[in-house]
Amino acid sequence: MSAPSPGALERLRGAHRRAVTGLLAGGPLSRADLTRATGLSRTTVSSLVTELIASGQVIETTDRGRPHKGGSGRPPLLVALATPGGSVVGVDVGHHHVRVAVADRTGDVLAEETAAVDVDSHGAHTLDRAASMVRAALTRAGLGRDDALAVGMCVPAPLHRASAQIRTGILPGWQGLCPGEELHRRLGLPVFVDNDANLGALAEVGRGAAQGVADLVYVKVASGLGAGIVLGGRLHRGATGIAGELGHVQVGEDGPVCRCGNRGCLETLVSASRLVQVLQPAHDEPLDMARVLGLDADGDPGVRRVLGDAGRTIGRALADLCNSLNPEMVLLGGSLGASPSVALGIREALDRYAQPETAAAVRVAAGSLGDRAEIVGAVSLAIVRVAAT
C-alpha cells in the first residue's frame, strides 16, 4: 500500500486545523480539552496549536481552566482565537420567530433583534424579514454591511447536502428554496446554513454544557423533535445532510399523519403542542408550554406523568441510536429540554433498552444555553467558516 501523497497529508492537516479553530470559536479551551474533543493525539494537538499561535490565528491566554473532571492538579493554560477585525451575524429561524445577532469574531454579541414571524408557510417573506433585521442589528451595533464577514443561519428543517435546498414538507412554504442563496441575494454577504439541532449541538460543545465532549447527541424537544450528532468533536450530517431526524422515526404504522407526510412519527406523540393538548382537559386555565414547565417544576403529578411518558418514548428511540453510536452524553435542548420529568423518562428508557455498558457510559443532562443555543450556534458557524477561509 503506497504512502499518502504530500498533498493528501496537507489536506488532512488542514482539516485538523479547522477542527481546532472550530472548537475555539466557541471560547477558550485547554490543549487537553482540544485533544478530548477532536480525538487527535496530544502530540498532534500541541503541534497544531503551536502552528496556529505562530500564524497569529490563536493566542495563549493568561486565564487558566479547571483540571479535567475535578482533578487537583494545576489548572491548565487556555488557548483562544485571536481577536481579528470584522464581525459576523447569526440568524436563528424557528417555526414562529426570527432572531438575529451581530457579534465580534470571539462570539461576543454586539446587538440583537427578535421578531415573531409565521415562518413555516412564508419562506420568502421570512427571508425578507431576516435581511431587514440583519441590517437593523448592524446599525444598532454601529457597523455597516461591509463590516460583516459572514452570516450563519439555522433553519428548523433538514437541508439536502448537495443542493442546499429544503425538500421536506416540514416547512411547506420553503420547499425548493435554498435559504443560504436567498439570504445572500438579499444581503450580498456569504451565508452558511445548517439545521437548528446541528447548530444547537455546535453551541453547547463550544460554549455550553458539552465543552470538551467529543461524542454526544443533542436532542431538541420543542414544536418538533430533532437531533444534532457530534462524533469525534465534529458534527455528523450524513450522506445527504439529514442525519439526526429523530422525530421522524416511525413508532406506529397506523399513527397520526406527520407534517413530513409519513404516519406514526415520534414527534406526533411528543411535540410540545401535542403534550399541551393532552394535558389541557385536566386544567381549567389555558395551558402553554411555559405554564406546563412551571407545573412540572412544582411537582404536579399529572404533568409529571405525561412529560415522563414523553421522555420514555423519546428514550426508547434514543436507546437504539446510543447502541449504534456509544455517545458520552445526551444533551437536551428546546422548550422541553429543561424539564426534569422528560430527562428522567429518557434516563429510565436508556437504562432499560440500551446495552448495559452503553447506558452506563452516557450522561443525560439539560443544555446550559436554553433557547439561545441556536443563535449562539449560528454565530459560531459564521466564525468557523470565516476562520477556515
Describe the structure in your own words.
The chain has 389 residues and is α/β, with parallel strands linked by helices. The chain has 3 domains: 6-81, Orthogonal Bundle (Arc Repressor Mutant, subunit A); 87-200 and 372-388, ATPase, nucleotide binding domain (Nucleotidyltransferase, domain 5, 2-Layer Sandwich), CATH 3.30.420; 210-367, Nucleotidyltransferase, domain 5. 41% of the residues lie in helices and 19% in strands. It has helices at residues 6-24, 31-38, 42-54, 123-140, 179-187, 196-207, 267-270, 272-279, 289-297, 301-325, 340-353, 356-361, 373-388, and strands at residues 29-30, 58-64, 77-81, 87-93, 97-104, 109-116, 148-155, 191-195, 216-221, 225-231, 234-236, 329-333, 363-366. The strands form 3 sheets. A 5-stranded mixed sheet has the order 6-5-4-7-8. Strands 11-10-9-12-13 form a 5-stranded mixed sheet, sandwiched between helices. Helix 1 runs antiparallel to helix 13 (373-388) and helix 9 crosses helix 10 (301-325). It is globular and about 65 Å long. The two termini are 33 Å apart. Keywords: Kinase, Transferase. GO terms for molecular function: kinase activity. Belongs to the ROK (NagC/XylR) family. Pfam families: ROK (PF00480).
